[in-house]
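quick one, 238 residues, struct below
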Amino acid sequence: MAHDIRTPLTVIMGYLEMLMEHYDLLHHGPSNTILEAMWRNARDLHYTLERLLTMDDTSVRKIVTHLEPVDLGELFAKCLPQWQKRVEEKGLSFHAIVIPPIPYIMGDGDLIRQAIEALIDNAITLCLPFRPDPDDWSTPRPQIRLYVWYGPGRFRQHVQIAIIDEGEGLSEEDLARLTDMNSAQMPALRSLALCKAIVQAHHGRIWAQRRQGNGKRGHVILLGFPIAGQAHSPENGQ
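---
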């Protein structure tokens, strides 16, 4: 609460007080930097509060109250620039590939956006801290990748979304706890528990796996959302 809510609020309030005392700054160059800092902190605070409000509803059945066809193409067109900026502000690289055609899915568009943002924030956490070699400024930044596709894959009747990071790697035990809301040892990753609740409320699937190759380590978190119009038969009543 102190880091994610109080700190950005303090920054916003400090700049607002300065602008009220020195209104002429609005007509000079420094105002752009100030306003951008205010907007960035307000945005981060907004993300945090959205998740707190969603997590406050501990019943998965109550998380999604209204399902309707969601156009993921439209959602990504709106959100991808914001997500890219969020990742690059942390000194990381962001790459997204959406493979058409992407059918509509039944769900709550705002909650689906929250789930993906939770995965992106988790990927940022796993990639940081990134310390480039001071003697070699060509050191590539860790990359966070987002893939969206429909069709061949683990679940054919699902739109699948994958977030791939290049973090230091977690143990198998920690990987299994990524979506455990009660994992006090990993508080920075609790947003994945929120993501899991949202996906399950949509009758979807979430799973994680480690990746290693070409000298890079990291994780792949995948989501699967059933497409609109397809019947969903829960396995074993789950």
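The chain has seven helices and seven strands.
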